[in-house]
Amino acid sequence: MNLPDLEIRIQQLFDDELTEEQFAELETELLENPEAMDLYLSYSGLESDLKHHASYQETAEKLPVVPIEELLAQQRRRAIRVSLLSAAAVLIIAAVIMWMQQVPNTPDTIADLRVTPGSDFTLSHNTDDKTPTRNVMVENSRIVLRHGVVELKLPHDVRAIIEAPAEMTLRDDRTLELNHGWGYFKISSKDGEGFTVVTPHQRIVDLGTAFGIDSPKGSKEIELHVLEGQVRVDGIDGKRGGIVQANRAVMLADTRVLREIDNPSISFRHKLPPKINTLVKEDFASGLISGHNYVIRMDKNVIRDPAGNSFGGINDDTTWNFNTLATTTTVLPTSATWNYFHPLDAVDPAIADPDFNTTWYTQNDAGNSYDGPTFAGSGSGLFGYGSPGGRPNVDIGTPGSGKRYTAYFTTTFDLGAISASSVTALTANIMADDGAFIYINGKLAANYHTSPGNDTYLAGMDGGGNITVSTNITLDQSLLVDGVNSIAVSVHQKSNDSSDLGFQMAVKATFEPVSEPSSVLGFGDQTDLDDDPAQAPPTSATRDDSPPVFIATYPADDSINATQGGQMKMLFNEPIKLGTGSVFIQNVTNWSESTLVVGDHRLSIDDLPSQGDSGEAGKVLTINPPIELKDGAQGVGWLAGWQTDAPVTFINPRGDGIWYDNDDLQDDRKSLGMTESMRSPGMASINQPIHRKIGTITADNRYTVSAAIGVRAKTAKNPSTFPGYTIRLKSGDITLAQLTSNTPPGPANSVNTVGFSWDATTLPKDVNPGDPLSIEIIPHQTSGYLDLNALRISTLGQSGR
Q: Architecture of domain 330-511 in CATH?
């Protein structure tokens, strides 16, 4: 943290303006940097002096000048007050004694708790007594450790070092329940013998030793490493079992030794490491919402060049607009004009035109061979006769009873700027009484209440009938082409004496916008910047006294082009760095606002991909805009920094039971050490895999991954089938570690944290230190939605082992 940023953070601390993340960052800086601590102490002393000075001045200004004639009256009143206060003191003492007898005592401390800075944990106390106010454990205290390391100092010279992910409950001074986790236990004296670690399947009883346990969550097998002395493995029912001696490591199932472990000296940590390194802090609350317009402003010192020249900022009069393209659009409205052909004489058109049944739906295609009857009718809206869910806008004629068969409709629609290959779904909202075949560009795209291969004039539909409402059906989007597409529909009757026929249809396309082809960022051609002296980077032969020049934004200024990744990017003419101040973001579509202070992980300086390999690095300011949604609102868009084949849905689950019942769901309910499973009021809901780069693999490190997963209320207005999930760490195509489950992590209407860890001490074949590392989250089904919040990835080195 540079000096200006440190000064800002300290001032924000005194003004009570720091977020939890900023406070944790400042705390780490102060603990690790003596110069930063000296600066803090100087500011602290100055702050204290200013407050005292202000209070003295205020007091002095209010001092009255008392006339001498009032002094005697004051003395008389003082004597009366002394008598009254003496009587009141007796009553107060009696009340205090009664209160001390009635107020519950603070429970006796059993274990002192120390935590590695940056650890992510929850400490709760199940006691009727007064809740302890510091990091201690009493009987039935419970710790859920998501990231980091904790140390327990227990009575009888017992010490424990537990690594995440872990969950434990202290039952008494000699019994610790370890639901899951990775722990080292050291008993230093005879007084500690008998200390017991209870796992879900056995009791590990110390007989004077040091030992380690690796108990994965949900596993029936655990690793036991006896480093010194010996332990006894008892049954969960208390029945005594066998003894395991020092320098031995075994895999246990209940009290049975399944096999020996080759490496009995596995490196458990013997002390707390100085800190953990957080690689990813993702609340799934940053990105771009489709179809929204954004405005950016910034302070003048946010951007600087290496020489220290400031960009100058963006003031209230100069804004840049980022306008993302909607991901779903109507390509064929109900008001579209159709041509139709409806025989009224019950004569099969295939009699006069033998290939009618295979060519009529190609007549709008280039190079078609259709030579059958002309589709002379034309109109828009509801076509038909009788009363098919309403009075038709276009009466196509009513054949006599017994002559009512099939009507044919054709039209075209234009995808415009949308690439056919980017369309991920095509949906028709159709009212077809009684059934229909739908063709796109001369090929069958869907059938509705009919069997494929039976599209002839005299063919009836298979079931149902008397359709009066519209229905959404899926069309085959692979049949689309860029630009103009033809669509044709044949509407069939259930019987030839049906009282009505109706047809109306609209088509919507869901698509993933494609980045502009000039580069990954889509900033256009930057090869001729030197032609513009204002934009050209300074030469090394001259002193650089010019400020950075802003060149382009992505998504482009006032653009309708969207980007994958959900980030805003600003390109400058030379390498830049972050200075001090804030960036202000306003979504002028929903009028939400947010502020990012320099130092926030959502602001970064990145390379321009097309120039990064040539040394032209660090020219791009990347902004991960916060998603701000009202309670119960949702939006479709792109996650900042993630790769995905489809947009995600952002939701704010607080509302009127749309996804969750808010009487039970607690957003940001604070407890000691952290907030509960939700770290922000929003969630991302996905039904397609998402992928994100993390960095590179560091040898001998231990990686921990956790994520909060929601299970929607059964009574929700928008319920969803729980799809199951896989969360995996990968290097290229190689899976390093993963957690997979089809079972919800908790009951309906809850948000729960799941997690796993991976030790990079021994790397898989073809994986080496420095290889790329990434995270992938995969829903097992596309029919449901996986609600995500609070993804954390951290790493610990060898310190403490």
A: Sandwich (2.60)
